[in-house]
Specification:
The chain is an alpha+beta fold. The chain contains 9 helices and 19 strands. A 7-stranded mixed β-sheet has the order 7-6-17-11-12-14-8, covered by helices on one side.
């Protein structure tokens, strides 16, 4: 079974705090508190301080720690903590899912790049030669990340709100001029990405040769978990998109025209990639309203499922306030 890492929120006497967790059956384990308990049981001095360094409670810091953090998670899982066991500071280790609020696994990515590497996506738009030559991408807003299960507010200035079903790689090891054969060693893990799109505005924007902008910047959904690279089939994992429980498409990563290696090699040419950078592979074939030529409505629920990761769900709702672009 694949390791699934989460960011979750708990209530404390000092207010809400976010923690890095790992799924353990029907529970979430607080990795920092659990690893501190492991170190204390081994007789290590200052276990809490050591755990803060090796298994920090902020996901971006956790990703920067890399292999040591993943090994700490495996030790926490191997410890098989009972529900009444606490960390050396008294912090709980085991939580039921209904006791916590699941946050985006990476609440604020370092950078978001989104590619388009599935040839059968947007088949009504003729692809220029450059599409086949290099994995092209646009950049989007890392401050508009939406938590799993949260409502996404329909932009008041848009009539055709679209979802886009994607898988994203998250960089863990920094690098520049990375060879495609070595690329996956720089990836910390993978997650599901819902690239919400204001479709009418997008077609207005791309009349200028600058690419998408505001039409992409209002909502980016990630989650519900990050699966480390060694636990995920990045080449042929399968997935499904459902709207109000109706399956709209099935898809597989084996249909990528440009590989993860090609994506990372191209992007890192004379440009550094950093931990926490998100690289979306682009929309699966038929993985959006535009490909289906049918549209979602306010109140609809979109569920994106990828084998090995889970289900990312959002409901779209109309905002009460109206504005204009």
């Amino acid at each position: 079974m694949s390791m699934k890492l989460a960011t979750f929120e708990v209530h404390t006497d000092l207010g809400p705090q976010t923690r890095v967790g790992v799924v353990d059956g029907s529970a979430l384990l607080d990795v920092n508190a659990g690893y501190a308990r492991v170190l204390a049981d081994e007789g290590k001095s200052r276990p809490g301080d050591r755990a803060d360094v090796i298994a920090p409670s902020d996901m971006l810091d956790f990703i920067r720690t890399g292999d040591d953090a993943i090994e700490a998670v495996r030790e926490v899982l191997d410890a098989k903590f009972e529900s009444d066991v606490c960390g050396p500071s008294g912090a709980r280790i085991r939580y039921n899912h209904n006791e916590v609020r699941l946050r985006s696994p990476l609440p604020r990515p370092n950078f978001i790049r989104d590619y388009t590497v599935f040839e059968e996506h947007a088949t009504d738009v003729e692809k220029p030669d450059v599409w086949y030559d290099i994995p092209v991408y646009f950049k989007t807003n890392h401050d508009t990340v939406v938590d799993p299960g949260a409502d996404v507010h329909w932009p008041s200035w848009e009539e055709k709100l679209d979802f886009e079903f994607e898988v994203a790689a998250i960089i863990g090891e920094p690098g520049q001029n990375i060879d495609s054969d070595d690329a996956l060693s720089h990836v910390f893990g993978f997650t599901i990405f819902n690239d919400f799109t204001a479709r009418e505005l997008l077609f207005r924007e791309i009349e200028m040769p600058l690419g998408p902008a505001k039409s992409k910047d209002f909502a980016n959904g990630f989650g519900p978990y990050i699966v480390p690279t060694e636990d995920f089939d990045a080449h042929s994992a399968e997935g499904r998109a459902l709207v109000n429980g109706e399956e709209w498409t099935t898809a597989t990563l084996s249909d990528m025209y440009h590989s993860w290696g090609e994506i990372i090699e191209h992007t890192s040419k004379d440009e550094p990639l950093q931990p926490g950078d998100v690289l979306g592979a682009g929309t699966f074939p038929d993985g959006c309203c535009m490909d289906q030529n049918r549209w979602i409505d306010p109140g609809d629920t979109i569920e994106l499922q990828v084998d090995g990761i889970g289900t990312l769900s959002h409901r779209v709702v109309r905002s009460e306030e109206e504005s204009q672009v």
